Amino acid sequence: MLLHLVPRWSARLFGASPGWRRYTRGASARLKGLGCPRGTSSRLACTAYSTVAGSPEVMLTPERYPVERLPFSTVSEEDLAAFECIIPGRVITDPEQVQTCNVDWLKTVRGSSTVLLRPQTSEEVSQILRHCYKRNLAVNPQGGNTGMVGGSVPVFDEVILSTALMNRVISFHDVSGILVCQAGCVLEELSRYVQERDFIMPLDLGAKGSCHIGGNVATNAGGLRFLRYGSLRGTVLGLEVVLADGTILNCLTSLRKDNTGYDLKQMFIGSEGTLGVITAVSIVCPPRPKAVNVAFLGRSAGCPGFTEVLQTFRTCKGMLGEILSAFEFMDAECMQLVGQHLHLTNPVRAVTSSTQEEPSLSGDQEERGSNSESPFYVLVETSGSSAGHDAEKLTSVLEQVLNSGLVTDGTMATDQRKVQMLWALRERITEALSRDGYVFKYDLSLPVERLYDLVTDLRTRLGPRAKHVVGYGHLGDGNLHLNVTAEAFSQELLGALEPYVYAWTAEQRGSVSAEHGLGFKKKNVLGYSKPPVAVKLMQQLKAMLDPKGILNPYKTLPAQA
Amino acid sequence: MLLHLVPRWSARLFGASPGWRRYTRGASARLKGLGCPRGTSSRLACTAYSTVAGSPEVMLTPERYPVERLPFSTVSEEDLAAFECIIPGRVITDPEQVQTCNVDWLKTVRGSSTVLLRPQTSEEVSQILRHCYKRNLAVNPQGGNTGMVGGSVPVFDEVILSTALMNRVISFHDVSGILVCQAGCVLEELSRYVQERDFIMPLDLGAKGSCHIGGNVATNAGGLRFLRYGSLRGTVLGLEVVLADGTILNCLTSLRKDNTGYDLKQMFIGSEGTLGVITAVSIVCPPRPKAVNVAFLGRSAGCPGFTEVLQTFRTCKGMLGEILSAFEFMDAECMQLVGQHLHLTNPVRAVTSSTQEEPSLSGDQEERGSNSESPFYVLVETSGSSAGHDAEKLTSVLEQVLNSGLVTDGTMATDQRKVQMLWALRERITEALSRDGYVFKYDLSLPVERLYDLVTDLRTRLGPRAKHVVGYGHLGDGNLHLNVTAEAFSQELLGALEPYVYAWTAEQRGSVSAEHGLGFKKKNVLGYSKPPVAVKLMQQLKAMLDPKGILNPYKTLPAQA
Fold it and tell me: Which residues form the FAD-binding PCMH-type domain (chains A, B) (predicted)?
């Protein structure tokens, strides 16, 4: 497949169609490596932060947040000896190695654990937990350490139980697409594995290069394919979980339908390691789409903006139907940040007449559009089984949104490299933000109609106290990622943000954590989205499954009065 | 749209294509009433069985099955007065009216309740349960009473708590397709309601004319759209549940993503009324497909059979991709029974040259095919957003399966009435079976490769003791409905079937209840699909949520030692 620069398209060609159709046929797009690294996801690996983690710039969690250590035991020499018996050579106490796993990748929280355990089997996890349970030692289960809410690192001196060496594929069924693997398999590696067998993973996210499938399940990760393939609650068919006392719960079936008793695995999906340690996952993978198209669309400055984004979404949903696989949006400040910090080029703004291979697409405002910022950008992806049919459907949509003025500029890609270039703009926003300073992150579910109002509201509210207030996310799922950057962490700015953001969300009957979970940083805001009866029931469930509370303490649930 | 008889198609036209293509364009199939009554599902209504229920032919459950009444209180005059205070005029004690709700629609189990309560609101359900909890009265929550495993009727004298009057739509969002409604809404009525707004329900099943959405959720119903729209675990967004002690748990959110704490609603999905009474449901509905096509395919007798059915499935999955919405199979005995008891015509066998409007489709074996039985029949449905594209894809598939000899005969429908006629053949099998005598029903998940082996195995094993041994079901989900009919219930035949069928299934690591649940009749076979650790955990969950065990006792979980 030839490497093309991302082309820009002429509105007039759009209307007339033949040029367009010729292009889409030519790029019939049997993508060979759809899930290859996008962005710099591999940077997220825990070890990449060793220097950062070791530096004094990340405050110890209890120094920044009001939290008291619970009366767990502390790790003794005898404990270390016992661990060494269970997993010889895989008990890590070297301070520098342990330190990398004490700090979250956002560099916002830091624990003070002194021991990192790296089991390879469920049986080893079971023995470790049996010991910890008996000894009343707190345990922090850790996957790829890519969480956003401080859930994946210790708060105090919890034993870190890493799934990093539990990275074996157990089985793959090439007719049903059912994959069974250990919890520590890295999502991107699984992606590659199943793609070679003509399937894809039902989830995809920016952190794919580091995150573990067990962590994905434990946090009920949403991500970029949610719109099409739905929740892990539907695609995860079975789990193996080790309970707090070391009991192995084997629900690792590979059946699409199984109504024999209560579906216990659901309790562990999204429980953030507080109810059990997921050690293996059975998940159903969809067939690899034969054709993938990505369109990246924008509007010129001065246009009203978000209303048109919503109308574009409705148009896409109606006309693309079953082939719509993503509808992501980002605002102009996001685009500015990925340009500034990562040197990515805005494909619907730059004039590239000398390099482009295809004529440009832009609407009536082409003249001023070429030098102005779009207030919003939208990434639309289709995945389907017929390149021709899909291109035809997408062409109709693009004609429609362009002719009706919903969009003033756009570009489209069908080959793998261009698709990745466009996706990078969206996927690397998190990384660009983290380079901009300290980031206050909010991950909200809101009614789509009100999705962006909070961003503009906050810009006014915060004024110059914030460096940037940006909004982007999975519009198709009603999921806003609201991020505020500042030179450094500041209690004052935090006070201006919270509980304001949560109360605003609760007023819309939204969720204060759409897909990131509650972890350590959001555990006290659970009550904004769940009634007291529900919180009490969650606490009962926790007490039932982990009566000593040793699993990932200080996380997910608010401290009991 | 004109009414056509179901056409038969010529193999030669298939190969040549123009006739076919002309037809599919003509029938561009914007179905107006896709979910209108199929079959005679309305017959399933509880009240339709009043005469049957009153007759002595249905044995009392404790007379047929070994079960002891637990030490619950019995309903007193004071209890009735208390109920009358909560729901004036809706406390039913008329023996005939109560009796219809004591018997399951299969006429296999019968309870001896003397009181039927018909609340209209969650608050009323809450007050009723608060009273029953205090008084230690057992409660049988009942929806449409269409369950297959005796879960929906009392075993002894449990108070019947019907959701029949809780049938109000609370809200519908016409952009997101999110429906919020009370638990007693009948599935078919909801279907009609959302279709008028250009959406469909994400589930569909034969009992749609009677079953309640609350019952569907409580049993985690699978059904005919599972292959395309997945499990209720993904599509149900929120629930309101009344707990055993009367506490109202409101998790009735309408968010696609909400990772705030544990997902409590999952505990109640599939819990068969044993953990709480579902009183309202929030569910996301997919947009109504613009085009629906159904192909009904068969093979002439003497052809090897099931291997080709599997290959046909693989071909459909690969070539139809995202538009494949159902892949159902039935064997020749099923076809014989729907013909014999319901007078439905086999569309791929009958010669209808005088009435047909389109030439017939059949392969090389047309001559003998016209007078012979196909060993298997397959129903393939596509649902998509472009009639033209979908027809083109289906045509290619049909050409492929016909030319390669996987299929020897077939018919196709695009208009609503023909689609319904074809679906009736599959959907009314249950009804035909119930007219054939006493039915021993098994609903199994098995590896697709072995799916039919058990049927042929049983035919040999049972010999003339069984009237019919038939297999049909949701092949696309690996879900076999295995049914054995006999003149009457017989312990000897039961002994020949069980535990043989369960052991056979367990050996394949299958599920002994794919979608029907365990209810009363299968509760003791849970151990064939779940390990002791899981069963113990289920019992702990039950004890936590319903410490007195008043909710739907004798169901789902085996009696504790």
Answer: 109-288
